[in-house]
Amino acid sequence: MQSSTGKTRVAVIFGGQSAEHDVSCRSAASVLRYLDRGRYEVLPIRISRAGVWEIGRDTGTGAEFPPQPMRSGSLIVALGVLRTVDVAFPVMHGPFGEDGTLQAVLVAAGVRYVGSGVLASATAMDKQFTKTIVAAEGIAVADGVVLRAGDDDVTPADRERLGLPVFVKPARSGSSVGVTRVDDWSGLQQAIALARKHDTKVLVEAAVAGREVDVAVLQHPDGTLEAGPALEIKHGAAFFDFDAKYTAGAADFVIPADLRPDQRGLLAETAILAFRALGCAGLLRVDCFLTENGVVLNEVNTLPGLTELSQFPQIWRAAGRSYPELLDLLLSAAR
Q1: Per the UniProt record, which EC number(s) apply here (predicted)?
Q2: So which residues are the catalytic ones?
């Protein structure tokens, strides 16, 4: 279905109530800038930190929101707005956007959208569930302990098994928000407290010695899956934390990574297997450690960063696909 102008009406939805609100807005700014207005009629929708849906105006390269934007006072009104578009592009990271919540709203509205469905989004957002599912398919993952509400320590036996350092992280958060590297067990309680600010479920994971490599997966409209060239992350931080991710010059991306053919093949095979095992759709970024013994999956992102300088677009640019072409493909594969 197309608008009276013959263009496809696209709702670009961004912002949200998670700690990744600003990251989402940065990603959306790139999407709004590069969407081809010759093909698309764009409706910007920003969700405030308070959960208010704000309807903006497309400027041709971005979005403009008046001082008192038109606000949807209820979910019913928001659904009405969404039903006027042909396809939605959720540019949302973290809880309420990447975890199936927004996807459920879009399903209720009967709107096609970019990316994974409700179940795959919710499952992939939870690092514990992700690890359980991919491990059942034979993919290696880091050893770890799950701390649920009321669990505030790691047993001596688990400490012995995991060793140091360990990484303490919220189970359902992204962009390394709330993640701490613990080099001494005396710092464990503080790290758990920080992670608990973002999630009641916390993971304590053993460190994995290896090269940090990302693989991007795209699903074409016919269902074919394609893995892009592997990207190696090089940085000087203790780990690839929020600052290293979003501070200009703090990290270097090497694309394609300097790998043997067998390593490239194993990484691509692992990423596509994870995509299928989790039931994903459209796109996925798979973050791995390449160790002496093979590939260890760290985590996955069903809606990875989409600024023009983020890993996912850079990987496909290295493969010869421009940012506007990438957006076209993602929208054409929406369902």
Answers
A1: 6.3.2.4
A2: 20, 175, 246, 285, 287, 299, 301, 305
- Both tokens of 280, joined, read 């994903």
Angle between the N-to-C axes of helices 118-125 and 101-109, in degrees from 0 to 180, rounded to the nearest 10:
170
Residue with tokens 């994971």: 205
CATH architecture assigned to 123-141+209-332: 2-Layer Sandwich (3.30)
Question: What is the rounded distance in angstroms from the CA atom of residue 180 to the CA atom of residue 187?
Answer: 9
Q: Which residues contact 102 (CB under 8 A, 6 or more apart)?
A: 13, 16, 90, 92, 96
121 membership: H or E segment, kind and range = helix 118-125
Report yes or no: 140 and 134 within 8 Å, Cβ to Cβ: no
Q: Tell me, what amino acid is at 258?
A: D
User: Model confidence over 294-332: pLDDT tens digits?
Assistant: 999 999 999 999 998 899 999 999 999 999 999 999 999
Q: What pTM was computed for the model?
A: 0.92
CATH number assigned to the domain with residue range 144-206, chosen from the 4 options 3.40.50.2000, 3.40.190.10, 3.30.1490.20, 3.40.50.1820: 3.30.1490.20
Sequence ranges of the chain with CATH classification 3.40.50.20: 8-113
By C-alpha distance, which of 313, 213, 304, 305 is closest to 267? 213
Classified as helix, coil or strand, 17 is coil
